[in-house]
């Protein structure tokens, strides 16, 4: 797992043209934000993996949720998702149990993307099958 993650995270050497100054700042900022998200994500994964959860779970839950939502690398995204599942297992015995809130936030983050979730106002029409078309003739 570790070796596979490292292979996918290490950038391959590439020759790229030098961008304009403003574009370079934006790219640098986006890269910095992505790296910062990954550092927080893997720190949270380590905390979950060691089962050393703090009293306040927000510093652990937030980076995992952000990685599940925004991470471009599907391997990292899947790793964060599996750690969310492990976190839910670890929190099952907590009182009060945060699992309902975590699952609710996961569901609402999935439902935000209209490409993944059809609108209730405009549901997907059922596909017509040849058997239905012939029986109506």
UniProtKB/TrEMBL annotation:
Pfam families for this protein: DUF3535 (PF12054)
Domain Mot1 central intervals: 30-123
Q: Which residues form the signal peptide?
A: none
Q: Which InterPro entries match?
A: Mot1, Mot1_central_dom
PANTHER family from the UniProt entry: TATA-BINDING PROTEIN-ASSOCIATED FACTOR 172
Q: What is this protein called?
A: Mot1 central domain-containing protein
